[in-house]
Amino acid sequence: MLGFSDRQKSALHLTWVAFFLTFAAWFNMAPFNTTIMKQVGLSLDQIEILMIGNVALTIPARIVIGTLVDRHGPRRVFCGLLLFAACVCFYFALASEFLELLIARLLMGIVGAGFVVGIKMIAEWFPPEKMGVAQGIYAGWGNFGAAAAAFSLPVVALLFSEETGWRMATAFSGLLCLIWAGVYWKWAVEIPDRGRNFQVNLIHSIEVTSYRDLFLQVLLMLPIYGSILALVWKLSALSSPLFSQEVTGLLTAGVVGIFFLNAGESLRVNLQNLKRAIPNEERYEFRQIFILSLVYALTFGSELAVVSMFPQFLETTFGLSVAAAGLLGSSFAVMNLITRPSGGWLSDLFGRRRTLAVLVLGVLAGYWAMGEINADWPIGWVIVLAITCSVFLQAGNGACFAAVPLIRKDLTGKMAGMAGAYGNVGAVYFLTVHSFVGNQEFFRIIGGYAFLVLLSLLFLKSFKKLHVSYH
To answer: How far apart are CA 315 and CA 38, in angstroms?
Structure first.
C-alpha cells in the first residue's frame, strides 16, 4: 500500500482504528439527543449545554495529552485513553440526571484529544516523503468514527427498548474501546527516537521572529481561553444554574489567570529572543499560522458542531425516526476517509493558497445554501447538499494541514497543536451560537465566518519556497 512496509502498515492500521473508536465514543450522544431529552427529562437548553461540554475540554486536554505522549510514548497513552473512554461511556450509559450526563460529556471531551497521540505514532514510523499521505489516511479514517457512530449506534439501540436502547448503544462504543486498548497494547510498537523532535503540545510558547508576531501570538491565545469561559458562562446562565455567582467568579478568575500566565511566559521567552540578531534562515511570519488556525476553526470546528446537531436537526425538521435521522445525519462526516487526504493531494497539485481559497469558497456557498433548508425540502436534496458542503470542509482540513509544516519545519509540532486547538475552539463557539439562534441562522452565521476566513486568505503568503529547518 503506497510503498509502506509491513511494519508501517501495522502501525498505521492499529492507530487509525484507535482514533476511529475514540471519535465514535466522542460523538456517541449525537444520534440520541431527542431520545435523551425524552427519557431523562431534559430541556433543549440542557441538551445544548451537553453538546458544548462535549467539545470544551478537548482544548486543554490537547496540552496535557501532548505532554504525556512526549513523556510516555503513544502506545501507553493511547491505551490509557481508550480505557478512559470506555469508563466514560459506561458512566454516561448509567447516568440518570443532567449533572451526571454533563460530567460524562465533559470527560468525553478529553477523549477527543486522542488525535495528537496518533500524530506522534505516525511521525515515528513514516519518513517525511510519506508523512503527508500517512497522516491523511490516519486522520481521514479516524474522523470517520463520527459518521460511524451516527449510523451504527441507532441500529444497535433498535435491538432494545426505547428506554434502554441509547444506553446499550453508548455502552457498546465503550466496550469496543476497551477491547482495542488490549489489542493496541499487545501489537503496537514505538520507535521513540524518530518522533522525539515532533512536539504536539502547546505547553511551550511558539518562537516568533518579530514584535508584531509576538502580538499576534498573544492575540491568538485569547479565543482559546474565551471558549472555556463561554462554557462557564452557559452553565451559570441556566434556569437552574449549576454554579453560584461566587463559583462562577472564581472559575472566571482562574481561567483569566491561566491566560495571563501563558501570555506572560510567551512574552518572557520571546522578548529575550528578539533582543538578538535573528538570522534570515530562522525568520518566518506568524500570520501564516494565525490565518491557518482561523481556517481550521472553520473547516474542522464547524464540522464538529454540525455533526453534534445534524441528526437532531433532521429528526425534528423532517419528522424522522432516531435510526433514520442517525443514518442520514452521518452523511455530514461519511466522506472523511476520502476527502481529507484528497485535500492535501489537491494542495500539492494546485498550490496551498489557491486550493484553500477554492475550498473555503465552497464551504461558504454550502453553508449559505443549508441556511435555506426547511421542512418543504425533499430530504434527498438536503443530504446531497450536506455531503457537498462536508466534502469542501474535510478537504479543507487536509489542505490546511498540508500547509502548516511549510511555515517553519522545526516548529511544526507546536504549530500543528495551535491549529488543532482552534478546531475545538471553533466547535465551542459555533455550538454556543447554536444555543441562541435557530438552525437556519446557525448555518448562515457559519457561512458569514467563512466569508471572513476567505478575506483573511488574501493575507496568506505563498508557500512556494519551503522553509529550510535549521539546527
So the answer is: 14
pLDDT tens track for 82-123: 999 999 999 999 999 999 999 999 999 999 888 878 877 887
> pTM of the prediction?
0.83
- Assess whether pLDDT exceeds 80 at residue 167: yes
Three-state SS string over 317-357 comes to HHCCCHHHHHHHHHHHCCCHHHHHHHHHHHHHHHCHHHHHH
Q: What's the mean per-residue pLDDT of the chain?
A: 86
Architecture of domain 1-196: Up-down Bundle (1.20)
* Terminal Cα-to-Cα distance of the chain (whole angstroms): 33
Residue from 199, 202, 133 nearest 341 by CA: 133
pLDDT tens-digit map of 403-461? 877 787 667 667 777 888 898 899 989 999 998 999 999 999 999 999 999 999 999 98
Band (280; pLDDT cuts 50, 70, 90): confident
User: Which tens digits make up the pLDDT trace of 7-38?
Assistant: 888 999 999 999 999 999 999 998 999 999 99
Query: What span, in angstroms and rounded, lies between the C-alpha atoms of 82 and 164?
Result: 24
Tally DSSP H helices, then E strands, for the chain: 20, 0
pLDDT surpasses 80 at 392: yes
Residues 6+ apart with CB under 8 A from 443: 367, 368, 370, 371, 373
Length of the chain measured in residues: 471
User: Does domain 293-471 correspond to CATH entry 3.10.450.350?
Assistant: no
**Nearest CA-CA partner of 309 in 48, 37, 36, 71:** 48
Q: What are the cell numbers at 5?
A: 512496509
- What is the distance between the alpha carbons of residues 443 and 428, in angstroms, rounded to a whole number? 15
Residue 281 one-letter amino acid = E
Q: Classify 43 in phi/psi space as left (phi over 0), alpha (psi -120 to 50) or beta.
A: beta
The residue among 187, 196, 154, 159 whose CA lies nearest residue 70 is 196
CA dist 138 and 118 (Å) reads 8
